[in-house]
Amino acid sequence: MIQYSVIFLFMVFSLFAEGQVLQAQDSTYLQRFHAELKTTPLQKSKVDSIYIAAATRLAIVDTETKVIQQSDISEEEINSKVSLANQQKKDIREVRDLEIALLLSPEQRVVYEEKIKIKKPSVLHFGMNHDRANCNVCK
């Protein structure tokens, strides 16, 4: 277990050393966000910091997932831990979006919800633990 902790820490430190907290698509998204909503300098600063903090947490969870997938534990345990990590990523994104929405004026919030916020796919019921027999969408 110590071996995996060392690998995990090395991966996290290398991630920050490379400065890859925000991916290109995230930077493009933020530029579009600020242009469409005409954010104030204060809003821009706060939104950017929220987004970068969330991206950092997402990168850490991704790194943890890679370490788990390379570990010597059972396949069932790997699937369970990866599923938990995916839920953590979903929660991080939801909190990020809520924090950003709270910073916006009512007019900006309408534009954000309609034009900018990343839409979820219409069908989300498939996944690692999908149970077709008990799925209301598949019935």
Keywords:
single chain; 5 helices; 139 residues; 71% helix; mainly alpha
Enumerate the spans where pLDDT stays under 50 for 5 or more consecutive residues.
14-19
Total individual domains: 1
Structural class: mainly alpha
Instruction: Estimate what percentage of residues fall within beta strands.
Output: under 5%
- Distance, first to last CA: 43 Å
Query: Roughly what is the average pLDDT, rounded to an integer?
Result: 80
How much is the radius of gyration in Å? 18 Å
* Series of H and E elements: HHHHH
Q: Helix amount, in percent?
A: over 70%
Strand segment tally: 0
Question: Given the structure, what is the number of helices?
Answer: 5
Let me know the largest β-sheet: none
What global shape is seen?
globular
Topology:
Elements lengths: L1 H16 L6 H14 L3 H29 L5 H29 L2 H11 L23
The gist of it:
With 139 residues, the chain is mostly helical. It contains five helices and no strands.
Description:
By secondary structure, the chain is mainly alpha-helical. It has one domain. It is 71% helix and 0% strand. The chain has 5 helices and no strands. The chain has helices spanning 2-17, 24-37, 41-69, 75-103, 106-116. Helix 2 (24-37) crosses helix 5 (106-116). It starts with a helix and ends in a 23-residue tail after the last helix.
